[in-house]
Amino acid sequence: MHILRQALEDSASNPRYIETIPGQGYRFIPIPQKPQRPALRPRNGRKIESLAVLPLTSRPIDTEMELLNRRIVERVIDTISQTPEIRVLAYSTVQRYSEKDLDPRAVGQDLLIRAVAAGEMTRRNDELLLHVELVDVDDGTQFWGAQFKEPYSDVLDCPEKLADGICDQLRPILVLNVSRTREDPSKRAA
Which residue from 29, 86, 119, 172 puts its CA 20 to 30 A from 47's CA? Predict the structure, then answer.
């Protein structure tokens, strides 16, 4: 027992790993484990560690809608890229993928990423309809999808609000409490 304690740099008088039970022998001291909340794992068990947010397809195609599209997508990329452990491709890398009939699986494999966020934006009078989905590039299944319906004039005035709404729903799908699992509980503010 002396050799084992010496190898573990443990002491009999102040044990950390092995304790003496009088009249019975020895036992290992249980080391408390801090519970970890793992990142959300897709159905096939692989974590989403890389992502491309593609430009939204839009109807009708006009300069105003193109500007809205770019501002929304750039804001989503900027916001999601601040999420720990998620690699998000830059807008300059994905801007060429703006065609309506792109296959998310082919795009994902071309860009060497795990998932693709893509969507379609339609303007009808003063209403903006937006459908966004997160697609697994391995098998084409949908991890997440959402539809947004906003007054067009409101989105035109503040596209960041719609982008933030997308991020609020998308971020939990990508990572669950990553910052909390890495944070030291003794340093948390009350």
Answer: 119
Quick one: 189 exposed, middle or buried, by C-beta within 10 A (0-12, 13-18, 19+)?
exposed
Looking at the structure, do residues 138 and 80 belong to the same domain, yes or no? Answer: yes
Alpha-carbon distance 74 to 53, whole Å? Answer: 9
pLDDT band of 97, cuts 50, 70, 90: confident
Selection from 51, 57, 36, 75 nearest residue 144 by Cα: 51
Spatial distance between the Cα atoms of 121 and 144, rounded to a whole number of angstroms = 17
The structure tokens listed for 181 are: 């699992």
Which two structure tokens, joined as six digits, stand for 140? Answer: 């084409």
Biggest alpha carbon–alpha carbon distance for the chain: 85
pLDDT digit string (tens) for 62-94?
A: 889 999 999 999 999 999 999 888 899 999 999
* Half-sphere exposure in the Cβ direction for 35 (13 Å, CA): 2
Domain housing 15: 1-33
Report the CATH number at residue 71.
3.40.50.10610
23 and 95, same domain (yes or no): no
